[in-house]
Amino acid sequence: MIRLQIPDIAPALADSVPTPSQEMEVLRSLPFDELMTRLVNSMVTFAINLAIAIVVFYIGRLIINKLYRFLSGVFVKRKLDRSLTTFVLSMVRIVLYFILIVTVIGILGIETSSFIAIFASAGVAIGMALSGTLQNFAGGVLILLLKPYKIGDYIEAQGYAGTVSEIQIFHTIICTGDNKSIIIPNGGLSTGSVNNWSREDYRRIDWTVGISYGDNVEAARAKILEIFASDDRIVKKFIEDDRKRRAAEELVAHAGDEPAAPEPEKKRGFFGRMFGAKVKPSIPDLPSEKAIISAPVDRSPRVWVAELAASSVDLKCTAWVSTPDYWAVFYGINERIYNELPQAGISFPFPQLDVHTS
User: Fold this and answer.
1) Which of 124, 132, 128, 71 shows the shortest CA–CA distance to 96?
2) Is the pTM of this model over 0.90?
3) CA 6, 9, 12 angle in degrees (round to 5)?
4) How many CB atoms sit inside 10 A of residue 104's CB?
5) 3-state SS string over the chain?
6) 345: region left, alpha or beta (phi > 0 left; psi from -120 to 50 alpha)
7) What domains sit in the chain, N to C, each tagged with a CATH number?
């Protein structure tokens, strides 16, 4: 059997890499003319690299500024949230400048792997230290992108209820009915359940009206429905018809106002100017197949006998209203029921206790 002996080349490779002391010995042993030639060549090479690095830096900075302005214009046209716009633009600028600086350092001949390793280790350490803050940050980005609620919505979440006044990157600020500002971290809001009372444009109001045993239920029902019918804010049958009525009233209210300025003609892009392509007119959104097939739902006010309670017959009354009118209609109808039902011969019971003494 023939055995092949492979020489160990590791010591040879280690010996082939000169140490700084060996390089200094080599430089000392060189003649003066050759030493000056090497110094001049090194200086010329460094000057050329420095000039290239300066040119690359200024060209890169110009490109970054152009890209920054372009993205800013796109975000403004898309009406992206201001907080998210500021954050995204800042992150884009920081990342691009980091890439540019690493590129310039590499052109100068400096080893960049050590810089990248330092930044990577620092990023890991910062991420571990700020894990909770980063969770709130990620939740803020998701909220600004997905928009489960917006400024002005009345929401209920994390045990608090109020109107959203600010949506920031790390937290959301809501204002309660008694004008208290509640700061809620976005991490819990993005992963928990949020009740958005303002998301839909119409809502149903429920009342429970207790009448005395022996009172005429039909008379009470008729009177309550009469109260509902006399209030223009309550949907009479279909929500679609109520929307049309409100739109017509708004047009009549603004009939004397000055007409809105016509929209400016859309500018053609670069290829449109070059090749004469015409801008296609915008096509309005067509109704979905589900909206075409489904028929309007009857939302008429209704009154049912909900429960035969201990001392009253409870009537459940429902009506649909526009979301901005919810509380005004709720409290207004409460007052009208209390004032007008007794006029129709309907009495309101109250708990009674019979005490017998011997």
Assistant:
1) 71
2) no
3) 145
4) 20
5) CCCCCCCCCHHHHHHHCCCHHHHHHHHHHCCHHHHHHHHHHHHHHHHHHHHHHHHHHHHHHHHHHHHHHHHHHHHHHCCCCHHHHHHHHHHHHHHHHHHHHHHHHHHCCCCCHHHHHHHHHHHHHHHHHCHHHHHHHHHHHHHHHHCCCCCCCEEEECCEEEEEEEECCCEEEEECCCCCEEEEEHHHHHHCCCEECCCCCEEEEEEEEEECCCCCHHHHHHHHHHHHHCCCCECCCCHHHHHHHHHHHHHHHCCCCCCCCCCCCCCCCHHHHHHCCCCCCCCCCCCCHHHHHCCCCCCCCEEEEEEECCCCEEEEEEEEEEHHHHHHHHHHHHHHHHHHCHHHCCCCCCCCCCCCCC
6) left
7) 30-129 (1.10.287.1260), 148-196 (2.30.30.60), 200-248+296-351 (3.30.70.100)
Q: Tens of pLDDT along 280-333?
A: 444 445 445 444 446 788 899 999 999 998 889 999 999 999 998 999 999 999
- CA dihedral over 229, 231, 237, 242, signed as positive or negative: positive
Q: What is the mean pLDDT of residues 90-119?
A: 79
Span 220-259, pLDDT tens digits: 999 999 999 999 999 998 888 888 888 888 888 777 666 5
pLDDT digits over 121-152, tens only?
777 776 666 566 778 878 888 887 888 888 88
Which amino acid appears at position 66 of this protein? K
Q: Which pLDDT does position 131 carry in this prediction?
A: 63
C-alpha–C-alpha distance, residues 73 and 66, integer Å: 11
Tokens for 90?
């800042």
